[in-house]
Amino acid sequence: MKSPRAYVKNPKAYLWIAGTVLLFALPFYLDRFWLQAGLFAMAAAIGAIGINLLTGATGQLSMGHAFFLAVGAYSYCVLAGESGVENGHRLTGLGLPTWLAAVLAVLVAGAAGGLFSPIAGRLRGAYLGIATLALIFIGQHVLFNARDLTGGFNGRAVPPLSLFGIDFDDSETVIAAIPFQSAEKLWYVALLALIGCGLFARGVLRGRPGRAMNAIRDHRIAAGVMGVPVARYRAAVFVLSSMYAGLAGVLIALVFQRTVPEYFGVVLSLEFLAMIVIGGLGTVAGAVVGAVFVSLLPQILTHYSDTLPLVSAPGTGGVAPGEASRYLYGAAVVAVVLFLPGGLTRLITSRKTPRE
């Protein structure tokens, strides 16, 4: 066993602390572009942690993760928004306090996962992937046609979050001579949510549920023989993954400040699968690393499209930043599968751990 002093002297702990302090300080130094890019990355990381619990740790292939992001995003808009007319459509809203609407939106996403969980508990492999893919098509149909709730093709505006008397909108709050607007204020909400979700998922994976999930992934029949309730665990993990996706959807909606149906399509689900493959299946760190890579790449290419070769703004004759980013992380998926099966996090953890 390691002595307490060994844990104190562990440099990895100090690196995590230093990284957390750095992340809390970034809003004082970064401009709005990088703050919004970071917010998208943190929201994507929360969603990626959820699908990594499902696909990476339990072995359940899900192609419908974007559906549950949409449930979270639009549930928040309906619960927090006011009824009225927008873009010629009458929209329904309950006008609840925004913090309560955010919590309820996550629970609604979990409930949607719960409704699907009996299917998730019994299907596996490609069959589950096809079943969850159907959720995307159903969700897209509802989002485009339930105009009273979603606003149809044009979407609907997202009410700004209000928490502890602080409005997370573009109203200016000066802290240490630095003007804080929506991006700066939302940064801390997203960061705390990511830390909380990461720690919870880490606890699940390192505890008895995590061992049961890995047993189901590696050998379902053997897990059942050992007394693991396979169908129950699969259903429970599906609900938990849906709640993570719902929270990610709420954060993405708050950053976008508008929800549009076409964003929550098949491409978004594929991007989440790419995140966990590139970062590393079955680990929280892998989900975060993959989410940062996949979500930041198109934004960086767009930001620097004037100086990068072969990349140009859409409609100017070159390769659009979005297309270039898909080529790059598609190539990254192939490279990881062929040469680095453990994902990018394997580069960090490849050194052997000394025996206890």
Chart the SSEs and their pairings.
Elements (H helix, E strand, L loop, with lengths): L3 H5 L2 H15 L6 H26 L7 H16 L1 E5 L2 E6 L3 H23 L4 H21 L1 H4 L5 E2 L4 E2 L2 E2 L5 E3 L2 E3 L1 H25 L1 H11 L1 H6 L4 H27 L1 E2 L6 H14 L4 H20 L17 H19 L5 H5 L7
Antiparallel strand pairs: 1-2, 3-8, 4-5, 6-7
Structure write-up:
- The chain is mostly helical and 356 residues long.
- It has a single domain, classed as ABC transporter involved in vitamin B12 uptake, BtuC, CATH 1.10.3470.
- Helices cover 67% and strands 7% of the residues.
- The protein has 15 helices and 8 strands.
- A two-stranded antiparallel sheet has the order 1-2.
- A hairpin with a 2-residue loop joins β1 and β2.
- It is globular, with a radius of gyration of 21 Å.
- The protein starts with a helix and ends in a 7-residue tail after the last helix.
- 42% of the residues are buried.
Largest sheet: 2 strands, antiparallel
- What is the number of helices? 15
CATH classification, class level: Mainly Alpha
Q: Give the second-level CATH assignment, the architecture.
A: Orthogonal Bundle
Span of the ends, CA to CA:
5 Å
The CATH topology corresponds to ABC transporter involved in vitamin B12 uptake, BtuC
The shape is globular
Q: Which percent range describes the beta-strand content?
A: 5-15%
Order of helices and strands: HHHHEEHHHEEEEEHHHHEHHHH
Poorly predicted tracts of residues = 352-356
Rounded average pLDDT? 85
What's the total count of β strands?
8
Structure class: mainly alpha
Strand order of the largest sheet: 1-2
Our Rg estimate from Cα atoms comes to 21 Å
Count of distinct structural domains: 1
Helix content: 55-70%
